[in-house]
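[09:14] KT: can someone run the structure on this one? pasting the chain below
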Amino acid sequence: MPPKLQSLALGKTYGTLDVLRGIDAAVADGEFISIVGPSGCGKTTFLRIVAGLETASSGSVQIDGQVITGPGTDRGFVFQTDSLLPWRTVFDNAMVGPEIAGRANDATKAKTRDLLKLVGLQGFENYFPRQLSGGMRQRVNLARALAVDPRILLMDEPFSALDAQTREIMQTELLRIWEQGRKTALFVTHQIDEAVYLSDRVFVFARRPGRIQEIVPIDLPRPRPLSIKRTPAFVALVDHIWGLIEEDVRSSVLNAET
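[09:31] RB: done, structure tokens below
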């Protein structure tokens, strides 16, 4: 079976700045992939190319064998900030994608209400963003991305603005939601433990020009309780990935300070 998503010799430059170089990777249908690496290694750029928000300078990214040439409803994007429209209710924010796609019919509205229930927001449909906590706003963000029924779910550090406790709860909620539909997922994060907890495999990017240093399989059983983070197998995976990027992270931090 061909991969759901495939990157072939993907490269991206901005003028003389070499951001991504020679990214070759394949993602199976229903697989959860996390992408980690030091700041500036091109993680978000890679995700934006998959989303069709950026164009490749060389190589290509394909979905079901078709080269990506722009945005599409086959991909849902969850941004780092929730970007909710403050004048729209929770339900109306979640309906933005179907409305843009011209599919704001009764069936889609019913499905969107089901999605809000799935993400734990039943009863909050008529609330406005200002009335919600950060975690609740990101739940709306996730429901909005799922409302277009994408084949691939793209998430760019969606929990980075949350406090540590809320972040852990959102990780378990994301896995619960993902298990319901098993969308193919790409998740960018700086948190190695988050990547290990969520993923089937972790793509470890090296420092710019961004390239895949190693693909680490996460052979931990599902479903995964938070307590799995305290097991030797989990800690060993986190230590291994940190060992791959430690020097790159150290260099990027020290260079940023000079």
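[09:33] KT: thanks! The domain at 1-74+154-258 is CATH 3.40.50.300 (Rossmann fold).
[09:34] RB: yep, looked fine to me
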